[in-house]
Specification:
183 residues, alpha+beta
Length: 183
């Protein structure tokens, strides 16, 4: 694991100038390369990574994925372990709160979910408006967006409001997914 004093020294052979690029968690920021310029008026160096094969789009404490090695972990737990030993709501709590719930926390979590499971009849009508051959994933995605029209009291700055929206989504997604196949 890298520490905060690690850096990569890059020498631009065009100009002979050397640059220090900070390394954090074995990663450099592509924007740090913009300091590398032939002339001051240049935009700066950019990276090219076809298909983002070696580009991290974000830093995540939730998910670790290495497709080449077949590794997928959520909050440090291998997906195989979660699939074998945990249910949908336990994993949802893990993703949201960072740890698998104990029995008391799980009971409270289930009650929060149950309180938001009802899906408004307007959304059932919404599903009926799709063509008969519409893809279920596209239908579900559209329904997720439509949920925002039913719950407009969201305050993006409020952790309580964020939590309630997350609970709503987790509570409603099984019904929305089923409707995408049946309605």
């Amino acid at each position: 694991m890298s520490n905060s004093t690690d850096a990569l020294t890059v020498t631009d052979n065009r100009t002979g100038t050397s640059y220090e690029i900070p390394i954090t968690d074995d990663t450099i920021r592509a924007t740090d390369l913009r300091q590398i310029k032939v002339q001051e008026s240049d935009f700066g160096m950019m990276t090219y990574d076809p298909a983002f094969m070696n580009t991290a789009s974000c830093r995540s404490a939730i998910t670790f994925l290495d497709g080449d090695l077949g590794i997928l972990r959520y909050r440090g737990y291998p997906i195989e372990q979660l699939a074998e030993s945990s249910n949908f709501l336990e994993v949802g709590s893990l993703l949201l709160k960072g740890e698998l719930p104990n029995q008391a926390d799980y009971g409270a979590w289930v009650e929060d979910i149950k309180a938001h499971q009802f899906v408004h009849e307007n959304l059932r009508q919404f599903f009926r408006g799709f063509r008969h051959d519409a893809h279920p994933m596209l239908m579900t995605m559209s329904a997720m967006a439509a949920l925002g029209t039913l719950y407009q009291d969201f305050d993006i700055e409020s952790p309580e409001s964020q939590y309630e929206q997350i609970v709503r989504i987790i509570a409603k997604i099984p019904t929305l997914g089923a409707w995408a196949y049946r309605v």
